[in-house]
Amino acid sequence: MIDKLEAIAENYKKLGEQLADPEIMSDMDQYKKVTKKWKDLEPIVQKFAEYKKLLNDIAGNKELLADKDGDEELREMAEMELTELEPQQEEMENDLKLLLVPKDPNDSANAIVEIRAGTGGDEAGIFAGDLFRMYTKYVEKRGWRYELMDVNEAEKGGYKEIVFSIFGDEAYGVFKFESGVHRVQRVPQTETQGRVHTSAATVATLLEAEDVEIDINENDLKIDVYRSSGNGGQSVNTTDSAVRITHIPSGIVVTCQDEKSQLKNKDKAKKVLKARLYDLELQKQQAEMKETRQSQIGSGDRSAKIRTYNYPQGRCTDNRINHTSYNLDKVMDGELFEFTEKIQIADNAERMAMMEEESKS
Hints:
It is built from ten helices and eleven strands. The protein is 49% helix and 20% strand. The strands form two sheets. It has an eight-stranded mixed β-sheet with strand order 2-3-1-5-4-9-10-11, with helices on both faces. It has a three-stranded antiparallel β-sheet with strand order 6-7-8, covered by helices on one side. The chain starts with a helix and ends with a helix. The longest helix is centred in the N-terminal third of the chain and has 39 residues, at 28-66. By secondary structure, it is an alpha+beta fold.
């Protein structure tokens, strides 16, 4: 592990030198690539520097202890320090192992998120709206931004379906873990006898496939334009600006009516179609991996019940990592950090365990 970390530290140093190279600085695309690699290595190099300092401190204290003729007070201090430092070594080594787990190269990409009302009638649509608000609040707290792609409003409030893009560093890496079934347990507004109902909404996270080679034959597309509906204002309802694209080979249908421009809606719809086609390929790969990786964490299983939002008890539970927050109001207001961070840590630990098993076999 040390040799690998030394090589990473050397590479980090070279990348830093490249960032000061006028030739690379003048090429924006190249500069961005080098900067990204440099930033990806930074946490590993910083942790490795802390680790080397810790080893030096441990070695120095052991040297003092080994000197039987040395100052007794210094030897006592060295012994006390060792009792504090030595337990940190194993913990720091585990941290470094986690940092060395290869990242999904797609994690840094933007994401497209689709929320659909599931079982539960009107209440499911209202809950889909609550999830959308929760996610947009979280996006804002992270300093990211989002853009609506398509909206299909429900009669009693909320949405039958809503699709939106998220732009931000690591957006896909965070939101890919939101794919699955989200359940809500609460008394619906329409319930007259105060009974708690269980409703659901499904979330699907797609990789925004801008830099992915997806071959779409225009002859495979059926494109329809129609008059938009919903809360879009008069101009939305009086022009044929909405676009529906059907990809004939796969049967995938994408609609977009958020923009007043037919051309913009068409571009957005094609972007979602490209993401869904790429997602089909990812789902095939994940299905092949399922035999060797049974955990729901990172499996992309859209049928898995991943989180429960219980309003009477004021709690939110992630079923994959058995983590419960009793601050449901804050969670619904976008405070998702404790869930997103713990899920990423659990996924890294699982992948590290798999790597160690593979290295033994």
